[in-house]
Amino acid sequence: METTFSSPAEAALQREAGVPGLRTPPADLDRVYELERVVAFVRDLGCQRVALQFPDQLLGDAGAVAARLEETTGSKMFILGDTAYGSCCVDVLGAEQAGAQALVHFGSACLSPPARQLPVTFVFGRRSVALELCAKAFETLNPDPTAPVVLLSEPACAHALESLATLLRLRYQDLLISSPALPLPVGSASPQPEPLERFGRYFPLVPGRCLEEYGAFYVGSCHDSPGPDLDPDLSRLLLGWPPGRPFFSCCPDTGQTQDESARAGRLRARRRYLVERARDAHVVGLLVGTLGVAQHREALAHLRKLTQASGKRSYVLALGRPTPAKLANFPEMDVFVLLACPLGALVPQPSGGFFRPVLAPCELEAACNPSWPPPGLAPHLTHYAELLPGSPFHVPLPPPESELWDTPDVSLISGELRPPPSWKLPDDSECSAVIPRPQMELAESSPAASFLSSRSWQGLEPRLGQTPVTKAVSGRRGIAIAYEDEGSS
Q1: Strands (DSSP E) along 22-74, which ranges?
Q2: SS3 for 169?
Q3: At what angle do helices 232-240 and 261-280 cross, to 10 degrees?
Q4: Per residue in 217-260, pLDDT tens?
Q5: Is the distance from CB of 180 to CB of 200 less than 8 angstroms?
Q6: DSSP state string for 287-352
Q7: Which residues pair with residue 286 across a beta bridge?
């Protein structure tokens, strides 16, 4: 009967966590994973214990790469293959648990600064790029040799941008090359002058020029990709790039191009809809999506302050990677806000089956801060650090007496008038967390408490002092699908 309605008990212990990608031939390991550069990194630091972080699709090569590095360097290698959040972030906590003195990150990376200092090097991989085809596609899309254009790429194609620019500089006069914003080695000084850093990339702009003047030519992804939600790096660029400037993507293998203006418009429309949903929300769930990126605690405090100022109730949830099944346990939440790295904040999409929208911190800022956006600036910020004090994009909340809080606001979804925040009532000079009733009772004004009172089951009741004290007894043994005392039937 057990196998008729469910899987055998042994299947839960034998199931694999995921299917790794195709393994790289041993002869290509040095080239694909840049082992010569990794060996030089380990020897220069003199590390005896090194952590190797792989994404799920590269775990098939992890054992061979670790064995090759141990044989060459003589150092002990530890494979980090189970990240609590996104694989694009540096797992400093996992490296410290292994006692590692340095970390090597393989695969795509968000390049967010880690919460703790640890020597890190990144290996993006080297995807082949058809330079002649990409150069021909660039010339077809940009007939004007004086038009300013910036060359962008996915991390695995960044090695080919200089070679591509060499083919194009003979004709084009204003060509800008971006490069990954790799963190500087510990103890090294910043270059002077510092290049502009945006979207996890460096842009060496000429004095007097700004990035908003440039069009974009992106080398990476593919023209027949199913949707922008599968490529968070490209989605990040499309959301933050000036709407009036052209943006083209080019497949590095075939040289086929696509105008990304339509896809960027759909992404911006979706984000505007999420902002409206956040404005209509009464209860907000703040999802902790990272513990290894710097300033995540300050950002969490900032988001809680935003929700409180706009009259919303917020709850902090630490669930690891968000999934529809996890978030479905909190139906009282109107929206969720994922506090994660720039790439992780764009991964959850409505097509994934989430019963409530999952927002980025920038969308909550636009919904709760009446002073947003600042004059002359309307980017979509994907990194929560850009919203904090000290950032050029930071916009402080207006004072409580500001007229911005009383500006009439109508929901574009329901068509109803949104009332001002409850704490901004004219006759309320102190705290309004409690509201007096005519019977001189005090009741907490909480949407979550009202929702809880309507449930048929509200949780276990402590009944302190009413339950007799009994001795502890042995509980059931086994796994939930087949306990030992249940037998085979």
Answers
A1: 49-53
A2: coil
A3: 80
A4: 999 877 455 444 558 889 889 988 888 899 999 999 898 999 99
A5: yes
A6: EE--SSBTTHHHHHHHHHHHHHHTT-EEEEE--SS--HHHHTT-TT-SEEEEE--TTGGGS--GGG
A7: 316, 337
Q: How far apart are CA 303 and CA 469, in angstroms?
A: 44
**Taking the CA of residue 7 as centre, how many other CA atoms within 13 Å lie in the half-sphere pointing to its CB?**
8
For residues 226 and 222, give the distance between their C-alpha atoms in angstroms, rounded to a whole number.
Answer: 9
**Bridge partner list, 257:** 250
Tokens 């956040």 — which residue? 278
Contact 76, 102 (CB under 8 A): no
**CA distances in angstroms from 34 to 26, 68, 107, 128, 318, listed in the order given:** 13, 12, 12, 14, 36
pLDDT in tens, 402-455: 888 887 788 888 888 888 776 543 444 444 444 444 544 444 455 556 666 677
* Among candidate residues 64, 207, 47, 41, the one with its CA nearest the CA of residue 122: 41
Secondary structure E strands in 224-293: 247-250, 257-259, 283-288
Position 355 pLDDT exceeds 60: yes
Residue with tokens 């004290």: 469
- Cβ atoms within 10 Å of 145's Cβ, excluding its own: 13
